[in-house]
Amino acid sequence: MFRSCTWLALASIFLLFTNCTSEKTTSSDITYSISNSKPRMDKDSAIVDAHDGRIIQFEGKFYWYGTSYGETNGFTTANKYLCYSSKDLINWEKQGALIPNQPEGVYYRPHVIYNKKTKKYVLWYNWYPKLWNGKFGVAVSDTPQGPFKIINDDVQMSRSEAGLGDFGLFVDDDGTAYISYNTINNHQVSIEKLDDSYTGSTMENGGIIAQHMEAGSQFKHNNKYYLLTDYTCCFCNYGSGARVYVSNDPLTGYTFTGNINRYPGKKALMLSDSVSRGTQYETLEKRPSGYDGIELQLEKHSSVNEIEISLFTGNRPENCGNVENPRVHPEINIPEFDFFTWQFDGWKPLKADLLTRESSALNESMRFTVNIEADRIKVVPKDSSATTALYINEITLFNNQQKLPFNGYISHKSIPQKPIIPAQQTYVMKLNTNAGEKFIWMGDLWGSASDNIKGHDYQYWSAPLNFKEDGTIYPLQWTDSWDYQPNK
Predict the structure, then answer these.
(1) Domain boundary, last residue among 411, 432, 454
(2) Is the bond into 132 cis (omega within 30 degrees of 0)?
(3) Given Cys at both, which of 75, 204, 275, 458 links 445, Cβ 3.0 to 4.6 Å?
């Protein structure tokens, strides 16, 4: 009896210890911690092998649908669809294959939605009897974990003749379902309305939204419809971007509002290092299409009423061998600047008046007055500046003399825009929390498995997306872990 009680006590302590990294308790709520620094495991201590699919909640339980790649390169007929379930996004249980004895082919992108009218769970999938002869298949089940029975392995879409590739499914508040998909030819993205059974298309297509894209995910927030997608990324370990398209209609009218998973250019750390003199400067090159610009991303939407720019005195034209000019130094070139602010779908000119200009032996300082509510500002030297390069020591943004923190980037069409999160988008998951409805960006971190097994590659799950007042989304930021409290 004593040994039995001791064992039970030790077992209880062990269970408490093993859960402490993923579940936190408070006096009134349970808080779960989502980690991006380690692979997600199932209850048998095996790495979850479910990629390029979705996580969706049915009757209080999460279901993770994905493609299992195992030890293959992903381009073989060995790909299988698997399902895992969880009550908390932390502890996963493997449910097994979605389509037992699936026909031979190469399979990707499983997505499951529920039809309240037919009371069926509907699985759509992208498959290739032979690469790259892309088709859509549909299967149904009475339960979310399956098994699913194929009812059509060649669903006809309005753009089937161009080949069918990556896709995503979305069910609106009124029960209408939509599929956002790209073709194989030119990877053209469009959205199409499904029929009432969710097993076929109505052939009502909203038209081409973008080209050379894939891995689209559609959702709704505050009565606006969002489609996130980006350029093709073939299992790329550098990751894809996440271009955000917004509309007031689920089918058509989408406007590009920016890319939340790409840096706008090269990080410019010295623009905000509090050193406004000397040679700690950032260089703006003058190119045939104009000068490099400086993009300033504020940490939050803020009121900005002054901008100060400090220039290195090396902004002079060269005079080597110019014997006709008796001056020791040519005049310092004081450039002029254009200012812009980002408004929903593009850069708009920003009125800026020169307030003060101060010159010294070490730098030139110019302060401008502006009057703007913004989270992104762009500063571009005017093309009339004579020098081939400008050297900017420091830029400071003020709100009533208070300095505003920002991230600075040197931007130009010729400067590559690298992904912020080195992952290929899979899905944007709706998560119901005690703080309301949240949206989680998900992506596969291809090539991340230390054992070089593709099926063990990690996934990145973002902290909840942060929406601006105009409905656009703030850029992603890498987060090792984040917490959420489920909706009661």
Answers:
(1) 411
(2) yes
(3) 458
Who's near 128: CB < 8 A, 6+ residues apart? Answer: 105, 106, 107, 134, 135
Phi, psi of 359 (to 5 degrees): -120, 140
Output the six-digit token pair for 375.
């989270």
List the domain range (segments joined by +) for residue 280: 266-316+333-411
pLDDT tens, residue by residue, 427-443: 999 999 999 999 999 99
Q: For residue 478, what is the domain's CATH number?
A: 2.115.10.20
Q: How far apart are CA 41 and CA 239, in angstroms?
A: 23
User: Same domain, yes or no, for 193 and 45?
Assistant: yes
Q: How many domains, the chain?
A: 2
Taking residue 464's Cβ as centre, other Cβ atoms within 10 Å add up to 16
**Which residues are paired to 19 by β-bridges?**
none
Residue 13's φ and ψ, nearest 5 degrees, are: -65, -40
Split at pLDDT 50, 70, 90, the class of 322 is low
| CATH code for the domain in which residue 364 is found | 2.60.120.260
Per residue in 333-362, pLDDT tens? 778 999 999 999 999 999 999 999 998 877
Whether the CB-CB separation of 29 and 485 falls below 8 Å is answered with yes
In single-letter form, the type of residue at position 230 comes to: D
CA dist 336 and 334 (Å) reads: 7
Among residues 446, 462, 452, which one has the least CA distance to residue 233? 446
Quote the pLDDT of residue 170. 98
